[in-house]
Amino acid sequence: MAADVYDKVFQVAKRRGFLYPSFEIYGGAAGFYDYGPLGAALKANIEELFREFYVTREGCAEISCPSVTPEEVFIASGHVAQFTDPMVKCSQCGEGFRADHLIEGAGFEGNVDVSDTTAMDTLILEHKVNCLHCGGRLAEVYHQNLMFGTEIGPGTRRKGYLRPETAQGIFIDFPHLYRYFREKLPFGVIQFGRGYRNEISPRQGMIRLREFNMMEAEIFLDPAEGKGHPDFAEVTGRVLPLVPKTTGERTEVRLGDAVKDGVVRNEALAYYMALTYDFLVSVGLDPEKIRFRQHLDTEMAHYANDCWDAEFLSARFGWVECVGIADRSAYDLTSHAKASKENMDALRRYDEPKEVSRTIVFPITKVLGPLFKGKAKAVADALAELDPGTVTPEAAVTVSVDGEHLEVPPEGYEIKTVNEKVAGESFTPHVIEPSYGLDRILYAGLEHAYEEDEAVDEESGEKEVYRRLRLPARVAPIKVGVFPLISKEGLPEYAQTVDRRLRRAGIPTFYDDSGTVGRRYARQDEIGTPFCVTIDFDTLGDGEHKDTVTVRDRDTRRQVRLPVNELAGWVRAKLRLAGKHETVMPAIDA
RNA sequence: GCGGGCAUAGUGAAGUGGUAUCACUAUGGCCUUCCAAGCCAUCAGCCCGGGUUCGAAUCCCGGUGCCCGCACCA
User: Fold this and answer.
1) pLDDT digits 0-9 by tens, A15-57
2) Which of A133, A157, A188, A357 is 20 to 30 Å from A395 by CA-CA measure?
3) Residue with CA nearest B35 C1'?
4) Do A315 and A183 lie in a common domain?
5) Beta-sheet pairing, A463-469 with A450-456
6) CA-to-C1' distance for A501 and B34, Å?
């Protein structure tokens, strides 16, 4: 059982307090992990970085919606019907199959209605489908929905689900958000949150979780404006590693060309791919181990019409999706508008309101009222819906109300031409969705940051593994380790005041005076602390180094001596630089 | 869900029916003037349940979890 990088990373993560398997004292549960103190800090730092990218830089607004969600939402979104796999098991050997795949494989022409289990049972009988494995008889088809169900309120008042994605909350709030953004497109909204998927067999550790953290952005835009991005010009020259669906081959192309050649469907998708690349690199992923793979038509989610996954290369799992950038078109808003009967449209304003003259069928309600009593309102509405061109003037007209045909006499309506001012035309915005899997990104960051050397002890000659996490300073849970060189003669006291000053300045630190300084460096290297500060006798003395400390860089082990008064500012400057990979690990001047 | 393997301290390992060992880590102390030094002490463990036996970490049965395949994976 050669320990691969996953094992090694996980071992450090567990031992040092990044990650713990959840519910461990009760035997654990696959697909759930706890974030320990360092993991929670790392997660918070990644979230903060996401805010920096999407809220500060892109101007998105952050909202936060519940995880527990009424069933109607997921009926409208398609998840109840489609976030499910129709399963059928062999009654003999127990082998499980996708029922619809079996039926299609048996020569059935046409669409299998995956929502109708009895229809599928019938089809299985008709086509004499047996177990592919042992030839045994198949049991009944059942739905394996991957959402966690629950009830809202005591008893079974109202069915609900834990959300499988945070996006729906944003879509549902669209009318509010549209007003918040003063009825102007495009705008973006982000949400951090947990999502839940009751995976059948989550056996890939941090990669496939049943409860996981997402950072999702929904960018609403007007499709008539070509799905562009105001800053697209800044990224046209960027070259990203792309794996288009047409070839399946990795190519490196300028984004401007990729859009021009139709490889990437629109500017907005391409822009967010570039942004995502920068984000992943800032979190500490190895730029050489990132690529963008386009979904094949067959693997696209039910709501998407184009989707590029950012994938990272894992030593154990191969290429793993960690961000999905999808063009969801108008799918979600249209679905919710239809299901809720709310208006989810936006208005494309004309420069000047237009005078439009329109011919309409105008109901004369004072005639319809006495004539149709309770149904008068419905009749009036039905009349107004009619196309004036189909109505013969001065004649009775028949309308259909609740399946009943009613004849309206000529005096019940009037055909007239009205002049209206139209401010614009309404349309359903399209959505570009960059959706980030936080847990996977965090794991990727750890795996790509992990480094070990075999150190040979000079005295004993024994080999020892030296582990180091080269996390970017920006995301490292602890920024500075603070040590007295040795534990005596006032060094610890002085070091503690340095530690305290740094923390008061908003810099997370770890004070350590145990063992030798080398051991303390090792401990901090292992959790990715970028800087360690040591207080020595020169600090206390009256010489030229009075009130100066040494700062040691994790990756180069180089040291620099700084006045203690400048320390907090120096560290903060290094942390601010951490937006790009090249600058996150600055060498310290010797 | 199916088949196979595994389960001993925080970590890694030893332990073929008779007092559970060892290393590392951690904690306290001594020592220590910059990269896992040394010394002393301390904490902490047989996955769960049942069976066989005078006696089970060890043998048997069942369960759970993890790993590897198959299947599944918007």
Assistant:
1) 899 988 888 777 777 788 889 999 999 999 999 999 999 999 9
2) A357
3) A518
4) yes
5) antiparallel
6) 22
Do both A317 and A180 map to the same domain?
Answer: yes
Q: Which CATH number covers residue A226?
A: 3.30.930.10
Question: What pLDDT, on the 0 to 100 scale, is given for residue A360?
Answer: 75
Query: CATH number of the domain that A566 lies in?
Result: 3.40.50.800
Cβ-based neighbour number of residue A266 at 10 Å: 20
Same domain, A224 and A301: yes
Does residue A100 fall inside a structural domain?
yes
Which of A368, A392, A424 is the last residue before a domain boundary?
A: A424
Q: What is the spatial distance between Cα A336 and Cα A20, in angstroms, rounded to a whole number?
A: 39
Count how many domains chain A has.
4
Distance A531 CA to B68 C1' (A): 40
Task: Produce one character per residue of A49-59: b if its CB has 16 or more CB atoms within 10 Å, e if not.
Answer: bbbebbbeebe
CATH at residue A136: 3.30.40.230
Q: Could you check: is the Cβ of residue A109 within 7 Å of any atom of nucleic acid strand B?
A: no
* Token pair of A477 as six digits: 């849970």
* DSSP 8-state secondary structure symbol assigned to residue A236: T
Cα–Cα distance for residue pair A335/A417, rounded to 1 Å: 34
* pLDDT tens per residue, range A455-468: 665 555 566 788 89
Interatomic separation, CA of residue A532 and C1' of nucleotide B58, rounded (Å): 49
Last residue of a domain, one of A366, A398, A424: A424
Q: What does the alpha-carbon distance between residue A268 and residue A244 come to, in Å, rounded to a whole number?
A: 17
The residue range of the domain holding A133 is 84-145
The b/e string for A154-180 (b: 16+ C-beta within 10 A; e otherwise) is eeeeeebbbbbbbbbbbbbbbbebbee
pLDDT digits 0-9 by tens, A123-155: 777 777 776 665 667 777 777 778 888 888 876
Q: Answer yes or no: do A241 and A203 share one domain.
A: yes
With CA atoms as reference, report the closest residue to A209 among A43, A69, A17, A34.
A34
d(C-alpha A385, C-alpha A571), whole Å: 68
Q: Which residues of chain A have pLDDT under 70?
A: 1-3, 85, 90-98, 100-101, 104-116, 131-136, 155-156, 200-201, 375, 383, 455-463, 577-590
User: How big is chain A, counted in residues?
Assistant: 590
- Co-location of A487 and A405 in the same domain: no
Other Cβ atoms closer than 10 A to A586: 16
Which tens digit of pLDDT belongs to each residue from A193-245?
Answer: 999 988 766 777 788 888 899 999 999 999 998 899 999 999 999 999 999 98
Question: Do residues A216 and A361 both lie within one domain?
Answer: no
- One domain, residues A269 and A406: no
In a domain, A447, yes or no: no
**Residues A124 and A163 both lie in one domain:** no
Q: Greatest CA span in chain A, whole angstroms? A: 111
Quick check: is A337 in a domain?
no
**DSSP state, A54?**
I
CA-to-C1' span, A463 to B56 (A) = 38
Residues 145-184 of A near strand B (Cβ < 7 Å)? 146, 164-165
